[in-house]
Amino acid sequence: MSDFAAHIDRELTRFHDELEAFLRIPSISTDPEHANDVRACADWVAEHLLAAGMGEAEVIETGGHPIVVGERIHSEEAPTVLVYGHYDVQPSEPDELWTSPPFEPEVRDGRLYARGSIDDKGQVHMHIKALEARLASGADVPVNLKLVIEGEEEVGSRHLAAFLHEHAERLACDAILVSDTGMFSPELPCITTGLRGIVYTEINVHGPWSDLHSGTYGGAVVNPANALAAILAGLRDEHGRATVPGYYDAVRPISPRERADLERLPMDEETLRAGVGAPALGGEAGFSALERLWYRPTLDVNGLLSGFTGEGSKTVLPSQAMAKVSMRLVPDQDPAQVVEAFEARVRELAPEGVTVEIKRSHGGAPWVADTEHPIFDAASAALESGFGAPPAYIREGGSIPIVQEFEKTFGAPALLIGFALPGCNMHAPDEWIDLGVYRKGIAALADLYGRLGEPLA
Ligand code: BES
Ligand code: ZN
Question: What per-residue confidence (pLDDT) applies to 193?
């Protein structure tokens, strides 16, 4: 056993205690009432980076939540690796659906339950402990290491792109390492080679000045809820395809090799269905579930609001209706082009008698890795050393828009090694991290830190 692996085993209980302390800070970035907790969490990260042996760690202000930057220089000739992650979390609501309170971490059956346990505090903590394990066991880290841990990932990384440009010289690097994605099973580590992009919008449909009596006016005044329903229904056809003109024009077809790769993965659609409790799976006709998740774009309603939704009934013709609609994009769709075409289509579908207002929220382009880069071989070897099995190359249906921005800013490849297991309840009640994966993942990352020098030199 390597010295760093022995260190991890010996110190594991302390690692768990520390991670629990990290998870107790409710760093909910979207909620202004938690701004102080978010800040306290940034301080916590900086303090623990220093304790792990990161030469410098600084909490840097932005217009929003602060960004933690760490730096440990090995030598001027050594290549530089930048680790990116986030310390902010999603809100915990609905709290009553949690088995144990979201910010009171609890271990049950080898899993640690808490908001942020896997997305992304647990994975950030694995990097901090991988660094500690190498340094404390005298293994050293043969690369210059930089860390950027932000507090606004869950709200669209509002200040990060500008921050990267502003600090481009200080943060210059030869590779970007990100742990904020998933793996297939506890025995099968994974490297993520593609992410979907996203366009997020809000549609507001306005009708009469105010809510009206649905008997006095219903039938003669256009109902904004009906109008919105018609718009939403018209945005997809009976084959589950978006009806936005040109939506699929830039979508890369799935190559025979990609299809063959997908078929080799231990994927069972019935397990996916049962795991979410839906009566059946569905989606765009002619594609498997993995193809729909990783290689095909979506158009989904994320939220709906209109009229009377309380107990009982109220005969009302609502004055307005609202829907949040997002699209997950795949290569080579362009978010700017998609959002234009989407808006035009919504206006075309809107019946006369209402006005429609469309707001654009955050967005980001899809991303695919250049898997020919030698860093992927180093990552495979490191994951095999930690998990006893070589990794699978997978994609994710989710989005981390900032990955693109990092690659562009630094002209360096991104390597995505994530540890979230299927069913880990990211963004949902009872979020968990598997503590076996946590330990093996730290060992794999510690091994990777030792290997990164060569492929980048
Ligand atoms: N960790 C996720 C990204 C992710 C989701 C990776 C699912 C793998 C599987 C990240 O924190 C996240 O939730 N991203 C948002 C981005 C959005 C706010 C721009 C997402 O995908 O919804
Ligand atoms: Zn998330």
Answer: 96
282 CA distance to ligand 2 middle (Å): 24
- Structural contact between residues 207 and 411, judged by C-beta atoms closer than 8 angstroms: no
Best residue among 27, 126, 180, 192 to mutate for probing ligand 1's pocket (most ligand atoms within 8 Å of CB) is 180
Ligand with an atom nearest the CA of residue 180:
1
Q: Decide which of 3.30.70.360, 3.30.70.100, 1.20.1300.10, 3.30.70.2190 is the CATH code for 197-251+297-364.
A: 3.30.70.360
456, pLDDT greater than 90:
no
Q: Which ligand is nearest to the CA of 420?
A: 1
Cα–ligand 2 centroid distance for 424 (angstroms): 12
CATH code of the domain made up of 3-195+366-456: 3.40.630.10
Distance CA 207, CA 210 (A): 8
Give yes or no for residue 197 CB within 6 A of ligand 1. no
pLDDT digit string, tens, across residues 114-154:
999 999 999 999 999 999 999 999 998 999 999 999 999 99
The 3-class secondary structure across 60-128, one letter per residue, is ECCCCCCEEEEEECCCCCCCEEEEEEECCECCCCCHHHCCCCCCCCEEECCEEECCCCCCCHHHHHHHH
Q: Give 45-81 pLDDT, tens digit per residue.
A: 999 999 999 999 999 999 999 999 999 999 999 999 9
Ligand 1 lined by 198 (C-beta under 6 Å): yes
